[in-house]
Amino acid sequence: MKTNMKSILLVALMFGTLISYANNDTNSTNNKAKKTVKVEFKNVRKGQSLTIKNDKGVSVYNQEIAASGNFSRTFDFSALENGVYTAELNKDFEIIIKEFYVKNGLVTFLNNSNTKLFKPVIRAKENLIYVSKLDFNNKPLNVVIYYNGEAILSDNIKGDDLLKRTYKLSENKKGEYKVYVNSDNRTYSKNFTI
Length: 194
Hints:
Shape: elongated
Distance between the termini: 97 Å
Mean pLDDT: 81
Largest sheet: 6 strands, antiparallel
Number of strands: 15
Number of helices: 1
CATH class of the largest domain: Mainly Beta
Number of domains: 2
Radius of gyration: 26 Å
Order of helices and strands: HEEEEEEEEEEEEEEE
Structural class: alpha+beta
């Protein structure tokens, strides 16, 4: 019985020592992982882009997605200045945003979920311009239309979850048109000719 107790005590001490070493290794790995961060997005398509911006909106990194599927890339953000940054996946009709904070070379993601911004859709057919946007935040959509470099219309669209407007242009005014749409502190534009 004494021998069994000694054996059990010895095994327990060995397991305790192994767990202690395992915990120390895990902690050092977590510290290292905070300096390098894996950014992942699902369902990406070739040609979409990943941009990392600082809190002033200045791009510090930009990459075009080379293959469709799931995207995963490990970044070392230890050289970045302290502050809030965003990793933005720019898709066809939406922008997926992940926010993170850098302090003394260590990275912390600010929330576990992604933020989605829906981009406006601007289409032109003959002398009609169609502008629409999904907006679940109920923020206004500012539209400015230029003809040959001169602003001819300015509009502010407010309303429900789907903002939409159709503009009819004069059939007699042939030339270059440009539509600027401002929403969510971002500007989108489209050029077309009638």
